[in-house]
Amino acid sequence: MQVTETQADGLKRAYRVVLPASELDAKAQTRLTELKNQVQLKGFRPGKVPLAHLKRMYGKSVMAEVIEQAVTEANGKLVEERGLKLALQPRVELPQDEAEVRRVIDGADDLTYTIEVEVLPKIELGNFKDIAIEKPVAEVSDAQVDETLARLADANRPFAEKAGAAETGDRVTVDFVGTMDGVAFEGGTGEGIQVVLGSNSFIPGFEEQLVGVSAGDARTVTVTFPEAYAARELAGKEAVFAVTVKLVEAPGAFTLDDDFAKSLGQDSLDALKEQVRARIAQEHGGVTRQKVKRALLDALDGMHQFDVPPTLVSQEFEGVWAQVQQDLEAQKRTFADEGTTEEAARADYQRIAERRVRLGLVLAEIGERNNIQVSDDEVTRAVVERARQFPGQEQQVWDYYRRNPQAMASVRAPLFEEKVVDFLLELADVTVKPVSREELYKEDEEKAA
After folding, report:
1. 79 and 191 share a domain?
2. For residue 445, what are the CA distances in angstroms to 53, 287, 379?
3. 401-425 burial by CB neighbour count: b if 16+ within 10 A, else e?
4. Which of 294, 318, 302, 232 is nearest to 425 (CA)?
5. CA distance 352 to 47
6. Is 128 within 8 Å of 424 (Cβ atoms)?
């Protein structure tokens, strides 16, 4: 094998590889010898087929198989001998000229091909003990617990049948059939659907038009689906619902006491309060984790500046950009509506893609150097948790991940990242900063607005 480097531009490398015809022919002869004891040809006893006859019959197919295997082995040897750490699978270009290909397969010419690769950059890791991070922590107040309990009570408020017209706050049970231009549409039909008037849980305008109905009434409700409606085929369109009212109920009184707590599966009101407090604390902790991790990644990004494989960045950008365009289309918005231009947005998301790739490489390097690993048991537990999110379909979800290595890798990757983050936070200077609930959620709420 002869290897000549033809390009060394940044992280890109290209090589011209020559595999001698004599070497390929020797491999083909070995393969034909193996076939001699395997094939059965009319007129020949097993194992007695002349090699020359086998070569006439199977020579071309055997040489094609030998070439494929030889190229794979040569590429592996090239990467190993030159100590290359590949960012992506190599791009191999074999001869395209038909006459040249024929001469190679016939064993008359050497095989000459090119291989292009992108390599991972050498990463000089910074001193993680120099990283200083503030950890915002919000305590759960009694007022927050009481507020959550009030919402729970309101959601579980009893209703009792009433005579007369429905008012805001009442619950009506309805059947309805929705149409567009006189044609029923998918998802527009419902039976025995309960609607609390004023809850804003239905399409805007639907609940308001049911105020004043009584049991047995029929009413036509005309609404327009929001521009950002999840079902894109319905977004922004007008629909007419033929509604039949089956029942009208008025909200009853409720008392926050032990009986109410027991109706929710708790032993007492105090036990319910502790459960609510723990859940709020868990939510606060999730936001704290997000902010600490974001600060850590910002610090890592500032400490590590190096060129990243362009194809990895391109792939990351294409994924991000496709999602941006899909979101804009779903919301029927433009870049102008977002206060920017497509060119400026592309530049911004290009920088985001580069940052993501760079941080991914840094985290991978840290994990490798410090032997941070995710066990198969940890991956299995994560898949089980995902499967539990689909009641009744657990087996199908489990089978999907078990049979799909790429999907399984998508489970392992975030587990690995969180382990590396935990490792770094042990080394960094992390200072707890007590904050209010409003301060803790402020940035996230602003981004969501």
Report:
1. no
2. 77, 11, 32
3. beeeeeebeebbeeebbebbbebbb
4. 294
5. 63
6. yes
Q: Which long-range contacts (CB under 8 A, 24 or more apart) does 388-397 make?
A: none
DSSP state of 119: B
Contacts of 116 (CB under 8 A, 6+ apart): 7, 12, 13, 14, 90, 91, 92, 93
**Per-residue model confidence as pLDDT tens digits over 305-327:** 999 999 999 999 999 999 999 88
HSE-CB of 24 using CA atoms within 13 angstroms: 28
Q: What is the pLDDT of residues 334-352, one digit of tens each?
A: 899 889 999 999 999 999 9
- Nearest C-alpha neighbor of 14 from the set 93, 123, 104, 102: 93
- Work out the angle at residue 327's Cα, subtended by the Cα atoms of residues 400 and 319, and round it to the nearest 5 degrees: 55
| Together in a domain, 210 and 279 | no
Domain total in the chain: 3
Q: How far apart are CA 173 and CA 215, in angstroms?
A: 9
* Same-domain pairing of 276 and 219: no
| Percent of the chain at pLDDT exceeding 90 | 69
Tell me the pTM.
0.76
Among the listed residues 397, 373, 372, 400, the one whose alpha carbon sits nearest the alpha carbon of residue 385: 397
The SS3 call for residue 141 is coil
Q: Look up residue 45 and give its two tokens.
A: 């006893």
Residue 136 domain-assigned? no
